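Appendix B, Record 12. Input sequence as logged:
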Amino acid sequence: MSSGKGISRKEFLRRSIRFGGGLIGSALFPWSSKSGDAVPQDDTELTTFLQNDRTITILYTNDTHARIDPFPETAREFAMLGGVARRAHLIKQIRQTHQHVILLDAGDVFQGTPWFQLYGGEVDLRVMSEMGYDAMVIGNHEFDLGVEHLAEVAAHAKFPMLAANYRVHNTPLKNTIRPLTVLRRGSVRIGVFGVGIGLEGVVPKNLYGDIQMYETLTRARYMADSLRTFHKCDLVICLSHLGHQHSGGSNRPSTPDDLTLAQQVPGIDLIIGGHTHTFLDEPVQVQNPSGKTTLVTQMGHSGVRLGKLEINPECWQDTGTYRASFYEVGTALSTNPPRIRSCSTHDDLPSSRIEFR
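Logged structural output:
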């Protein structure tokens, strides 16, 4: 397959993915934030929270759907928003000002624009690798060209692709999909596992082949417990492509939704969701079976937002304190500061809610 004006597909991809002069990483693409990074100078507690060397900054996306370029100016929704160049530049800026950053995706990287039709997801995975993604969960659209194709293009992902509730032992994905990964930032251990949506009735059988499903809630409990007890993780994150909340009816997936997962599985600190394209301005707080809080979040679709959550394991466990914000990936920089939030009421905190101004 060639890519116009006699440039080979391989050469086109090489030129497109390269940092510094290609599709991503260029200073020609400024970024915008719905809520930016400015820290109020008189906000002592917030400043102390951010300067703590055990504070982890979690950046996340979901359902980017091959949106390599920004939406055009003529788009009915999200005009001039999104695009991997802007997202990459934003991520680079955050890494320069934050000590411990992880970057995660909740699935459905494939399908949605001609980029996927032409290159079958290879561009997406190579771009994500260059941006430094740490992990993603498999979404249903990752199967759109079949398991063999997914196994082939997954070689371009320099990060683990997760799905703990998919049994892939007898499939081409047996060496591709993992149940979990453990990340280290400074002295903090962050456990990440993935759960994917039930494939039957969502993906044609010929595309997912011999993949079988583990019972999702049982598997999630096992993963969370393993990360806590065996891997000694300070934080446990679930990357979920289950959907935020399912409606009733015959089209309801066989797997639970994120809110049910949070309610029924102890030991998860944060669920980063996908599939339902839900725009959440702030995480939903759900009480889990151990009586603690699990945060549930999702950033819409098409890469028009980049989610950001800052959390310190000790502050989180002691007071339920975290800091959440998101960025609109656009063309102008806004510096409206987010606010710190607690899962319980503490008069000494700047605000009991996050403010997006």
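The chain has one domain: 35-342.
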